[in-house]
């Protein structure tokens, strides 16, 4: 199984290298990965900035901001595991949205794909999911931005249950700061919208306490 999964990842990589657009060529030299540290163990990801540059930047930005720390896996079913919701019920996000990115070759045709959850077109935010099986029906509806590194990571992902916790998300790669610098204007906008959203939440919580 491990050999099969690595063959799939190699095939994706080769296809990516042969079909890069001029825009994507800007990101092909970034060797980025991530480790999702859970209470069950580590889940390791390859990040694909050539496939979904904004989604990767968003994921790195949130991880480096410790946004994912202590969030639970709120959805677990036969097909996917899902996390990244501060509300822990599928309704929350980071306070801003990121547009969809469909590049034509990184698809949900295999297990171990990582995608951004959404509530409709161009509504991705912080929630992400990992597929336990091939789900081609998700193609061109959800942004795929990463893959699991090995079958061991898939086995760990399949062991996740509702309520299991993300303890940390570690971004690996010496070029991560340089990569984020390319998205400085986006990050400034995301920061502002996150702060405004947090302000509104605190004001709402205050009003609810005053009513008690």
From TrEMBL:
Domain PPIase cyclophilin-type: 41-169
One Gene Ontology term of the molecular function aspect: peptidyl-prolyl cis-trans isomerase activity
This protein's record includes keyword Coiled coil: yes
Gene3D superfamilies per UniProt: Cyclophilin-like (2.40.100.10)
This enzyme's EC code(s): 5.2.1.8
Name used for this protein in its record: Peptidyl-prolyl cis-trans isomerase
UniProt family annotation: Belongs to the cyclophilin-type PPIase family.
């Amino acid at each position: 199984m491990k050999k099969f999964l690595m063959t799939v990842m190699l095939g994706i990589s080769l296809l990516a290298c042969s079909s890069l657009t001029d825009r994507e060529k800007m990101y092909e030299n970034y060797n980025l990965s991530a480790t999702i540290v859970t209470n069950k163990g580590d889940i390791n990801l390859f990040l694909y900035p050539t496939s979904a540059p904004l989604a990767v930047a968003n994921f790195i930005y949130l991880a480096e901001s410790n946004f994912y720390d202590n969030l639970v896996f709120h959805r677990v079913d036969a097909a996917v595991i899902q996390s990244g919701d501060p509300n822990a019920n599928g309704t929350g996000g980071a306070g801003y949205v990121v547009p969809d990115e469909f590049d034509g070759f990184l698809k949900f045709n295999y297990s171990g794909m990582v995608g951004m959850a959404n509530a409709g077109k161009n509504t991705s935010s912080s929630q992400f999911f990992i597929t336990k099986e091939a789900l081609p029906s998700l193609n061109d509806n959800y942004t795929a931005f990463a893959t699991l590194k090995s079958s061991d990571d898939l086995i760990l992902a399949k062991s996740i249950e509702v309520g299991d916790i993300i303890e940390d998300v570690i971004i690996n790669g010496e070029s991560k700061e340089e990569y984020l610098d390319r998205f400085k204007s986006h990050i400034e906008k995301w920061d502002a919208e996150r702060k405004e959203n947090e302000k509104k939440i605190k004001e709402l919580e205050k009003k609810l306490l005053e009513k008690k």
